[in-house]
Specification:
Distance between the termini: 25 Å
Radius of gyration: 28 Å
Largest sheet: 8 strands, antiparallel
Helix content: 25-40%
Shape: elongated
Strand order of the largest sheet: 7-8-9-10-17-14-13-12
Number of strands: 27
């Protein structure tokens, strides 16, 4: 992953303080404001948009036809000023490109309504206190819309000096109401509320500079808020993931990244592009998180809690026109926008027109330009069994950390395949420990037997090799069962190892030490449908796919519960351990297949010293996964025997010494078995998280790398 431009907290604080302290002096010496329009609409962008109008592009036709057909109508406010915001900017952008004063005056009409009204034009129910609607949620629409509208509508006959004065007066009132202690999200960039407050503030700083009533505090506060946004991008937003779930982040990220873009287009101040590199990462994150069906978006449960999330093209389209986005990512962004097979809401007409650059050709995602089939963000990772041309591939989602105290789904694993959701979280809104694919541990922690949400996050590490395997490791999961102030733990150790064996097997090892034998453990797995249970195996049959789940070890009793009330069409499969133990190494095997496969592919449990695992008896792609059982393992050797199903068997072993060299031998054993011995030496090198992979070739009694596959 590309290193971030990270700054230690003390240096960040000092730099921010110095920058803010010097800002007033710099502002006094700064050249006068640039001509309107400023926000996002520099000369190059206007030229591009005018060329699109001349070419009568589809995006221009859509915008122009809408503006023309609604001219003279008094449309209502809709939802929290978002409709008037969109009407204002649609007419404003059409006016800027066409010069049609009728469009400009129509935009001024809706701008005026945002200043004064609430539900219908002329009702007079808006004004100063309107900015407090939904704890200030409307800063993203009402606040930003008034500032951007004033900027883009400059020159429209009805945008009089008196109306401009009304804009700055109202903005100052709104600013003073929002920027007070206790305003939700005001200093917390992980919230979409912050993004709206930020958008209002920097839009006011840039749009109103030079107008009567302009406040220099708007610029100062914009720089302070940027420091928070920047640090978010470089830490919790690392890799392009959202910290709040994509259902909210689409708009939030556009608002926050609009600041350096607005500085670039509308001021003589330095922009901040050199401080972040997230714009290209957001594009690749979008594509990586897009399920093979291209109808679902992996949402790791933060806030919305919906597994599918909402695929939307707007954010990627905006990234495609930002100067900070690398050229390949620009093309990938256009591919993403062009290849969604479902999205609940596309770009608004003005956004589609503004964010479409016909000179950018779509670039289809490949391993080379994406950086691999496995993607990792801040505590969240996804992987797929095949590349983006294969829409039937298996897709695995792992969640090691979630934002704030909204959810408790540390260690979550979810699976889709053949365009079907199979293993899913159990609730569509805010997740709780009850609704995650994590075990229930009885005991005395506060929310027993479920996870608790206030603890330190688990640490998620990921290792992968495209088209072969992905290894997810979650450590410190015991924190989520520790009670208030960690004073009542129900387990003292909990690590989860997950190995995705391409194309269709997922192995999960839960290594749990309870604090007492009375703290019984029950695995719970949420399935998108009603499975059938037989012995240690549950089978879910969907229209196009099947999911098999088998508890390999220890002995359990399976049961199921209809959880339709929490999430439509879901069932929870419980695997209750029959014999309580202080040492719990719970091995669960999942397999996805098409709906015609009659039974689970046979698998044999392997138990070499220090490890537990399975051998998948597939004649085409036989595989072995061995997972270390010691706490915090770092093994220097491993030996096991197996009966091969074919000449070459893929082997994945976890818990070896990290970044170490090993010698591996494969020799005939008794009968039809072969013995594998792994010792310190040379020939095969483990990854930095301790996973070791090789191919055991029984005909040659040799070991080779994965390249032959």
């Amino acid at each position: 992953m590309t290193p971030k431009k990270l700054f230690p907290a003390s240096i960040r604080a000092l730099a921010a303080a110095l920058a803010i302290a010097a800002l007033t002096t710099l502002a006094d010496a700064a050249p006068g404001p640039l001509p309107h329009p400023r926000i996002w609409l520099n000369a190059a962008t206007i030229t591009r948009l005018q060329a699109a109008r001349t070419a009568n592009s589809a995006e221009w036709q859509s915008l122009d036809n809408w503006c023309s057909s609604h001219l003279g109508q008094n449309l209502n406010e809709g939802y929290q000023y978002l409709d008037w915001y969109n009407y204002t900017l649609s007419y404003a952008l059409a006016y800027r490109v066409s010069g049609n004063t009728a469009y400009g005056n129509e935009g001024v009409k809706y701008l005026t309504a945002m200043l004064r009204d609430r539900n219908v034009i002329g009702d007079g129910l808006g004004g100063t206190n309107a900015i407090l609607i939904d704890a200030g949620y409307v800063t993203r629409s009402l606040g930003a819309g008034v500032a951007m509208g004033r900027d883009w509508l400059d020159g429209a006959p009805n945008l009089t000096p008196a109306l401009i004065n009304e804009c700055t007066t109202r903005m100052n009132e709104w600013y003073n109401l929002i920027h007070v202690p206790g305003t939700y999200g005001i200093n917390e960039p992980t919230t979409n509320y912050f993004a709206g407050h930020f958008a209002m503030t920097y839009s006011a700083f840039i749009a109103f500079e030079g107008d009567p009533g302009y406040q220099s505090a708007w610029e100062t506060k914009s720089e302070e808020m940027w420091v928070l946004a920047r640090d978010l991008f470089n830490t919790q937003g690392d890799g392009g993931d959202s910290v709040e779930g994509w259902n909210y982040a689409h708009r939030a990220y556009r608002h926050m990244l609009g600041y350096p873009w607005a500085l670039e287009t509308g001021t003589n101040r330095p922009n901040h592009w050199n401080e972040i590199d997230v714009t290209s990462e957001i594009v690749r994150a979008h594509i990586s998180m897009l399920h093979p069906s291209r109808e679902l978006m992996s949402d790791d449960g933060r806030w919305s809690g919906d597994y599918k999330g909402d695929p939307r093209s707007t954010t990627c389209l905006m990234m495609s026109v930002l100067s900070d986005t690398d050229p390949t990512a620009k093309g990938l962004a256009v591919w993403y926008a062009n290849n969604l097979e479902f999205q609940p809401g596309g770009p608004d007409r003005w956004e589609s027109f503004l964010f479409t650059d016909s000179s950018i050709a779509p670039i289809a995602p490949t391993v080379a330009n994406m950086g691999g089939l496995t993607w990792k963000g801040w505590g969240h990772s996804v992987t797929r069994g095949d590349d983006w041309t294969n829409q039937e591939a298996t897709f695995v989602d792992a969640v090691g950390w979630t934002h704030s105290a909204e959810e408790a789904n540390f260690g979550e694993v979810k699976i889709t395949s053949r365009q079907e959701i199979l293993l899913v979280d159990g609730q569509t809104y805010q997740l709780e420990g009850e609704f995650t694919n994590m075990p229930r541990i009885t005991g005395t922690h506060t929310y027993a037997p479920y996870q608790e949400y206030w603890h330190a996050p688990s640490v998620l590490t990921v290792d992968s090799l495209d088209h072969v395997y992905t290894f997810f490791r979650f450590v410190n999961l015991d924190y989520a069962y520790n009670g208030v102030n960690d004073d009542d733990p129900s387990c003292s150790y909990f690590e989860r190892d997950v190995v995705f064996l391409v194309p269709d097997h997922v192995v999960v090892l839960d290594n749990i030490t309870p604090t007492g034998l009375g703290n019984t453990i029950t695995e719970q797995w949420y399935m998108m449908g009603n499975p059938t249970l037989s012995g240690d195996t549950a089978t879910l049959t969907k229209t196009n796919a099947k999911l098999f789940m088998r508890t390999v070890s220890p002995a359990v009793t399976l049961s199921e519960t209809n959880t339709n009330a929490s999430r439509a069409d879901t069932y929870r499969v419980d695997a209750a351990i029959n014999t309580p133990s202080m040492t719990n190494r719970i091995l669960t095997l999942f397999e996805t297949s098409d709906e015609s496969q009659a039974a689970m592919t046979p698998a044999t449990q392997l138990n070499p010293a220090g490890f537990i695992g399975v051998q998948i008896h597939d004649a085409t792609t036989p595989q072995i996964a061995l997972l270390a059982t010691a706490q915090n393992p770092a093994n220097s050797s491993c030996s096991f025997s197996f009966v091969p199903d074919a000449t070459a068997t893929r082997v994945v072993i976890t818990g070896m010494q990290p970044s170490a060299n090993f010698s591996v031998s494969v020799t005939p054993g008794s009968g039809s078995t072969f013995d594998v011995s792994i010792t310190s030496g040379s020939g095969v090198t483990s990854q930095d998280d301790g996973s070791l992979t090789f191919i055991a070739n029984t005909s040659l009694s040799t070991v080779s790398g994965w390249a032959m596959f």
